[in-house]
Structure formats: C-alpha cells, structure tokens
Design a protein that fits this description.
With 207 residues, the protein is an alpha/beta fold. It has two domains: 6-174, Aconitase, domain 4; 175-207, no CATH class. 35% of the residues lie in helices and 14% in strands. The radius of gyration is 21 Å and the shape is globular. The chain starts with 5 loop residues before the first strand and ends with a helix.
C-alpha cells in the first residue's frame, strides 16, 4: 500500500454524526473483491434527492469540493458493519485522510490497513475547521504524520494522538501482508526446518 508522510490537500466537509458503512458504500457494491471502481457507490443514497436528481447540498455534488483528499466529519464515523469496502471506496474517490471527533474501531483499523490516515481531534477543533471550510473556498489543510499535527493556512496547529506501531506501518506503507513479507526469509527457514523435524505433518503436501 502507499505510504503516508505529509498531505496538503483540499478539504471536503460532511457535517453528519454516526455515518455508518452502509451509507458510505451500500450493500449492492459489496460483490466485488477489487479495490477500484467503488467510487461510483460512495454515499450513493445521499447523493440524490427522492426524485432522482443530484442533491446540490451534498458535498460530492458541489464543484468546490471536487478533488478533495481530506474529509472532515463528526463523531463515530464508520460505525455499523465491518465492510472493508468502505475505506476502499473513500480511497478510490481520492481521500487519503479523514478528520473526525471519533471513529468506529473496525473502520479505524481498516483505514490503516489501506493506507488512509484517520485523525481524531477534539470537538472544538473540529468545529473550528468546519467554520473555516464554510467561510473559505478551496480550503486546505496539512496533515503531518511524523509530527502528528493538522495545520491550517491561518497558522493554527492541532496535535493528534496515534499508536506508535500504526504510525510506523503507515509511514513505511506496510499493511499486514507487507509486515509478514519483511520476515519472508525467517518464515522460509522455519518451514524448511519444520519439514525436517516433523516430516509426517507434510506427507499430504509432498505426495
């Protein structure tokens, strides 16, 4: 997966709490195991009005948010089912970081496994950023993982906490498979040794 260091990008705002994964990516898009092409289903049920026309108030239909790489939202983002397609769809749309008051645990973990940085900030800081996005067009932020800060064009800086292991993995672009491959030689040596020590366990594999 892609490593994450520092991101300066356009911010899109989704001013909703308890956004669940069923809304992030509806169930009809879960048949694929591919990580691309899911942007078509991202927030599908919220993009349109009951008459089928695009909702002009929804952020994905607003020209000023096109090309955003940072999503600003509220508490408990990514709650609901544990579908990994949710971060896949967000990444396919171009988002590399999500800033919120809090995240659902499984979604939070899935973000790291897919190279996207979830940032938790205090509610008052989140509100400050929402106000700024509302008052300025093409509002940008800089999310700096090494220094664990979110910086504004006005010179404000907000610190965030992150587990040191997750931070190291994201900085290096390592998911669970990548971590395992770092030990590939040791794994291979172990497998060779075990076949010599207990060959009867491998008879079916060798026959």
């Amino acid at each position: 997966m892609d490593a994450f260091q520092t991101l300066t990008g356009l911010v899109a705002s989704l001013d909703r709490s308890h956004v669940d994964t069923d809304q992030i990516i509806p169930k009809q898009y879960l048949k694929t195991i591919h990580r691309t092409g899911l942007r078509e289903g991202l927030f599908k049920d919220w993009q349109f009005l009951p008459n089928g026309t695009p909702d002009p108030e929804f952020f994905m239909n607003q020209p000023r948010f096109q090309g955003a790489t940072i999503l600003l939202t509220r508490e408990n983002f990514g709650c609901g089912s544990s579908r990994e397609h949710a971060p896949w769809a967000l990444i396919d749309e171009g988002f590399r970081s999500i800033i919120a008051t809090s995240f659902a645990d499984i979604f939070y973990n899935n973000c790291f496994q897919n190279g996207m940085l979830p940032v938790v900030l205090a509610s008052e800081h989140i509100q400050t950023l929402f106000d700024a996005v509302r008052n300025y067009d093409a509002y940008t932020l800089t999310v700096d993982l090494p220094s664990q800060t979110v910086s504004t064009p006005q010179g404000q800086s907000f610190s965030f906490e992150i587990d040191s292991f997750r931070k190291a993995c994201l900085l290096q672009g390592l998911d669970a498979i990548g971590l395992s491959l770092q030990r590939e030689q040791a794994i291979t040596e172990y497998e060779v040794r075990r076949k010599q020590e207990v060959p009867w366990l491998f008879q079916d594999l060798l026959s």
